C-alpha cells in the first residue's frame, strides 16, 4: 500500500520547513498557499524564508513536492496540516480571523476520510470548537526555532498530539507519517496540547 499524501496549507516558515522535512522522509507532499505569487516564486526556486540548509533540501526533494494555489488540489491528501501564521499582539491576544478562514477553505475540499491537523499556535479550546469530525481532527505541537528549523523539523524530540480521545489509536495515515520520524508520540487532550505549545514557546 502506498504511503499517505501529506498536505500543508500555508507556505510560511512553519509550513515550508515542515513540508520539506516530510518530503525528505519519503512522503509525497502537497504545498498549498492562497497567494499565487508565493507559489509562483517557490516553483522558480525562490524561497520566501531563510533557513540554513532549506534551499538545498527543497531542491533535493522537488520530485516529491507539488505546489498549488488551488485549494481543491488538497482533495488528494490523506493528512492536511494547517500551517499559516497567526498574528499575536504584545498582550498575547491572537487574531484568529485568517486561520479560521483558511480552515474553512481547506475543510470544504477535503476527502471525507481526510485528517486535519492544526499546527499553529492557537488559544486552548480552539481546536475542539472547530466544526470538523473530531475523530479526524488533531492538534500538533511544533517546536521549530529560527536558524535551526530544518534540523528540528527533520529530527523532532517528540510529537505532542492533541486529540478528542487520547486513549484511542491515532488514525492510520497520521500514525504512519509521524512514525517515520522515529520519536516518541505523546497523545493528550486538545487543550493540553495547545497549552503545551504556548508553554514551550516561552522557552524557545
Characterise the protein shown here.
The radius of gyration is 16 Å and the shape is globular. The chain contains seven helices and eight strands, in the order E-H-E-H-H-E-E-H-E-E-H-E-H-E-H. It has an eight-stranded mixed β-sheet with strand order 3-2-1-4-5-6-7-8, with helices on both faces. The protein has helices at residues 13-24, 36-43, 54-60, 97-107, 149-154, 172-179, 190-203; strands at 6-9, 29-32, 65-68, 79-82, 115-118, 137-140, 159-163, 185-189. It is an alpha/beta fold.
Q: Structural class of the secondary elements?
A: alpha/beta
Provide the gyration radius in Å: 16 Å
Major sheet size, sense and barrel closure: 8 strands, mixed
Query: Termini distance?
Result: 39 Å
Question: Summarize this, please?
Answer:
With 204 residues, the protein is of the alpha/beta class.
Descriptors:
204 residues; single chain; globular; alpha/beta
Amino acid at each position: 500500500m502506498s504511503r499517505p499524501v501529506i498536505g500543508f496549507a500555508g507556505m510560511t516558515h512553519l509550513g515550508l520547513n515542515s513540508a520539506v522535512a516530510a518530503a525528505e522522509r519519503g512522503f509525497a507532499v502537497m504545498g498549498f498557499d492562497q497567494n499565487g505569487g508565493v507559489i509562483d516564486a517557490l516553483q522558480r526556486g525562490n524561497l520566501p524564508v531563510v533557513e540554513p540548509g532549506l534551499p538545498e533540501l527543497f531542491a533535493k526533494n522537488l520530485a516529491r513536492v507539488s505546489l498549488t494555489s488551488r485549494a481543491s488540489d488538497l482533495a488528494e491528501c490523506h493528512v492536511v496540516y494547517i500551517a499559516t501564521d497567526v498574528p499575536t499582539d504584545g498582550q498575547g491576544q491572537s487574531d484568529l480571523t485568517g486561520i479560521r478562514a483558511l480552515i474553512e477553505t481547506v475543510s470544504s475540499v477535503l476527502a471525507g476520510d481526510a485528517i486535519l491537523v492544526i499546527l499553529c499556535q492557537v488559544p486552548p479550546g480552539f481546536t475542539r470548537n472547530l466544526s470538523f469530525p473530531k475523530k479526524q481532527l488533531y492538534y500538533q505541537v511544533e517546536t521549530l526555532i529560527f536558524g535551526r528549523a530544518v534540523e528540528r523539523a527533520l529530527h523532532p524530540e517528540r510529537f505532542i498530539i492533541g486529540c478528542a480521545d487520547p486513549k484511542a489509536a491515532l488514525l492510520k495515515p497520521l500514525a504512519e507519517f509521524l512514525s517515520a520520524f522515529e520519536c516518541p508520540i505523546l497523545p493528550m487532550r486538545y487543550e493540553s496540547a495547545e497549552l503545551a505549545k504556548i508553554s514551550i514557546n516561552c522557552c524557545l
